[in-house]
Structures are given as C-alpha cells and as structure tokens.
C-alpha cells in the first residue's frame, strides 16, 4: 500500500485571521504576531502515541500550529489507558491514530490533523516523502537505532528533529535543530533598557551526541549534570538493542543492566570523584520500572518537549541544547550539551 502525503504549510504562507488572533491573543502578546504566524504555518509530524506524545500534542495543538501529522501502527492496549488521555475503554483494540484523531481535533478545530497507520511509513522511501512534507519531526519512545536513522533522514532534508520518551521514573528529550537562529534577551543590557539580540546555535546529530565525553568538567560541573541518570538512560537503549527492543522487567536482569551501564560509564570519561560506578539501587529500580509509564513523568517530559518545540518554531529564546534528562524520583531536570 502506498501512503499519500498531503502537503503541509508549503506555498503561500497562511495569514492569521482576526478570529484566530482573538483565540491566540494571549500568546501573541507573549511572543508576538510574527512568532505566532510561524507556528500557524508549521506542519509537525509526531511518531508514536504514548504518554509523552499525548501531553506534547495537547500543548502544541492548543498553541495553534497549522497541521499535525500523527503516525502509529499500534492498537490501543490496556497499558495505554493510564498515561494516554486520548484513549478510553471503548477504544481497546482500535488503531491508536483512529481513536486519538477526533479528540485531538476537539482541542483546537483550527488545527488540521492527519492520521497515518501504514506499516510501511517508516521504511526508506515512505519516510523520505513523509519528512519532506513536514516542517519539524518529533519521535517519542523509540529505540536508539531508529531515532538515529530518522534523525539522519531529517538532516538530509534540513528538518529539525526532536526525540523524547520515558523509562519508568526517568525521562529524556534530545533535539537536533541543525543551525538554529533565534532572538534572545540581552542579559548584559541594563534592566531599565532591555533589548533583544540575534543568536544562533549549531547542533549535532544524535549519533555524534551519543559519543560525548565528559572530560574537562570540574567535580561541581559534573555533579550538576546528574551523570548517573543520563548513563542509565544510555544503558537502557543499549539493553534494548541487545534484546531486540525489550526492556528489563525484573530484578533478575539488574546484573546485566549494571554491567552495560558501567561499561558505558567507563568509556565516557566522567569525573571519578563524582561517579566511579553506577549506583546499584538506581539500576535495580530501573530493572523493574523502565518498561512502565507513569502519568506524572509523561506530563512533565511531554510538557517540556512541547514548550521547546514551540520555542524552536517561534525562534524566540534558546531551545534545549541538546539533551534534557528528568529524574522523577527527585523531580529535577538537567540539560547536558553533548558534542555541541
């Protein structure tokens, strides 16, 4: 089956009407008409509808993007009813995109929603066509190799790329915005005369970011970045690769996860005064919880993900650069610049 892609915000830009300006009045006051106009003309692709995507979609649709394309080949399961608030009991067994589409549209009738559920969509030619038809790509709760592959396709066509997801109590966001220009407040200007300045950042693709080395950081700088949380995330991706996509589900798998995590830690040159081996308690917690979704963690990570996507589209303020991790057990989040 060949998939049909309806064009996004190509050709002539859509102008915001008076009615739309009234709906988005508060946001226009916040970041200006030009930024809202950019969002209004943006087509965003979101791949996989789990808890993080649900929260992110809610926020970007309410903010007033032009079009949302959702891709998921799965059916709604009982597990999805916890963190995925687009799904109801009566949706069990239905395709996720079919169950979610009308509820997403009801959030904001001004946003066009296209649902796609073909198994071939993420194969080479279909993926190329799909990425070309949108302005920004967001992939959630995916394995490392898949994220790297989709990131490379986005790079080939010059499209910004976001990845996000959770493993139990832990969450992450990665972004590759290529060369991103934005307007930022001038912190050096006197407070009575605030002004904005143009800034830009050059991002790394995911495969390069994951080769990041932590050398050269002081003890304090290393501690602030919470390296244990980031390294357990990296080790879960590696575990998935070894086990054909499966995550650990019991304490029996903790020794293997610990071995993988310590191996990754040894090669990344983290300050040994801060972290010379992975905390066993953290590894054991992840061994039993990583395969589950927790609504509060999905809400935080999805909220931050949506906020950053909107920030990137509006080109106001600096977006995440370039890896955000969230520790649900402490409620703290940190941003690490990985090979930027």
UniProtKB/TrEMBL annotation:
GO biological process, one term: protein sumoylation
Keyword Nucleotide-binding: no
Tagged with keyword Repeat: no
Domain annotation THIF-type NAD/FAD binding fold: ranges: 24-337
Pfam families xref list: ThiF
UniProt keywords, alphabetically: Nucleus, Ubl conjugation pathway
Chief location: nucleus
Any single GO CC term annotated in Swiss-Prot or TrEMBL for this entry: SUMO activating enzyme complex
Pathway assigned to this chain's UniProt record: Protein modification; protein sumoylation
Subcellular location(s) of the protein: Nucleus
GO MF annotation, one: SUMO activating enzyme activity
PANTHER family: SUMO-ACTIVATING ENZYME SUBUNIT 1, UBIQUITIN-ACTIVATING ENZYME E1
Name this protein carries in UniProt: Ubiquitin-like 1-activating enzyme E1A
